[in-house]
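To whoever is on call:

I kicked off a structure prediction for a single chain this morning and the downstream step that reads the tokens threw a length-mismatch warning. I double-checked the sequence; it's 258 residues and nothing unusual in it as far as I can see. Pasting both halves so you can look.
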Amino acid sequence: MLTFLRTRIRSVARGDAGLTLVELLVAMVLASVVGAMTLLTFIGASSASSATGDRMTGTANARSTLQQWQALIQTADTAPTGLTDCSSGTTSHRFEWIGTDDILFYANVGNRPADGSCTAPDMFWLAMRDGTLLQAQYSLGASGWAIDGCKVLSEKPYATFSSPALFSANRGGALPGVDTGQLWSASGPFAGVSTCSAAPTSLAANWVTTMQLASPDGTALEVLKAVTNIGIDFIASDQTGKHTQEFAAVAAVYGGTS
């Protein structure tokens, strides 16, 4: 009987002794591992959510830019010769150049009010520079062309853009040559512009004529007259570079007469 009581007392004593140091250390290690795994899972989910949000924003911006540029190019019209010159119907100097990464043209945007009057078309420069899409608009005034605004339509980190040929003339059709004014694109006042802040704020009224006389290219002038549509094509990549999407459209322009 006494032996049983002593055994029972020792058992109860051991039960009240609590955790050993080894057991405590094991518990702490397991808790740290579980906590680290939980934290890593949360960080991964948060990063994935952020990347998905940026990718969706970049895709939406790219699609909006494509639609905007397509509609804008479709309004391309004859270059003005004066402040109130809004004559149209000829193909001469609708487009001053169509380059692989930029284009310069004139467009009827907000220059024909309901009262029947009109003002000169605006000049537009659309470009891709350092992975971003830019759009500058100029209006003709008494002292020449003045910038109305320049916008970064889609930029990093939401998307990075690339294209072997951002603009192409007469996609799917034939042209009398492949010269579409690339010489003027490469030597004109927009050649070194990579940001909106670097875009020219003003240009002489006859700057295009002066440039083309200095670097004559009769072939380009004839080819640009024959343009009936402009292809727009670019690829948007997310910030990881793992997801890409191509955006393409064709903007039809009037044939007119030369």
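Update from on-call: the warning came from a stale cache, not from the record. Cleared it. Sanity check on the structure: The mean pLDDT is 82.
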